[in-house]
Amino acid sequence: MTGQVRWVNAADVGDLWEGDVLDVEVDDEQVLLVHLEGGPVKAYQGMCPHQEVLLADGEWDPDTNVLVCPGHRWEFDMATGKGLNPVGCQLYEFAVQVVSDEIRVAVPQDGVRHHNRFQT
Fold it and tell me: Whole-model pTM?
């Protein structure tokens, strides 16, 4: 990640169990926190790149790391943020730190919204 970032406390570690997702708002950014089974915590844009539906309301399968958007059933690999259906789209990924009992997200201080859009 290049440029200035601000590390913001997004959630307590106890609020995000392994194999779960959590919707949070961080510095006016809608962020989806994902704690992968046996893996790290990831942070992605919280709105679908198609029609800005809240991704946390989708169907989450922690065994496959696939999240299905509730809007039009778009599928995303939560280990990478890549679109599986359709291919070619990518969720914006925020850097994450877990410090003590806090999950922190790095929000770029460049004055723009951090949200990828994709048109079919």
Answer: 0.93
